[in-house]
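User: I'm new to structure prediction. If I give you an amino acid sequence, what do you actually give back? Let's try with this one:
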Amino acid sequence: MATKKTNLELVLNGLLAENPIFRLALSMCPAVAMTTTIKNGLLLGVAVFFVQVASSCTISVAKNLIHPRIRIPTYALVIGTWVTVIDLLLAAYFPAAYSQVGIFVKLIVAFAIITMRLEMFACKNTLQTSFWDGFGMGMGFLVGMVVISAIRELLGSGTLLGYDILGFKPLLFFVLPIAGFFVVGLIMGFLNYIETVYTQKKLRLIFDERQKTNLPSGSTGASSSTTVDPVGS
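Assistant: Good question. You get back a string of structure tokens that encode the predicted 3D arrangement of the chain. For your 233 residues, that looks like this:
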């Protein structure tokens, strides 16, 4: 079924509501292994962004030509093609950085987030909406990688983008792979807390509006104060 979301809603969905790392917890391997520096996280994030957008557009255009029984192998072939393109581009123009993240660029073909969006969205929607969905999901992954990398590089090495910020290495723990899970967990918890607070405030406003609407003309504020708030204090 084709989506009814606007282009902006599709982008925000990938950035916030269905962020691949912080909300869906997909493709966690690179989020843990390659986020020790912003450069590594940014490079891999850009590669995933490119492959996600290009693959979504390709499948959307060719969806009527793909037999249902071979759709998954077709997705893998399309993803593998675009991974090869970005792999060659990075190797040619960014050889130093590519030497550190090259193996993970090749593994993008197996990233669950890309295959999932092709199956759940691109094969059912138009080229335009598939582009914006791929843009949002790819940007969500990119932003997630950069945020994790910035936290780990600053707290682990005392630097940002290679520039010395703190003048010392505060917590070498953040350089270790296990710190990737730790940082992701903290960010997930923070986002869940923000979502909970926002939802409670939204429900409380709705409840208050309904109370005002249902108040009899001669009722007092004291009589309405005994009503139980479903959200909780």
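You can read the tokens as a compact description of the fold. Here is one thing that stands out. Confidence is low (pLDDT under 50) at residues 220-228.
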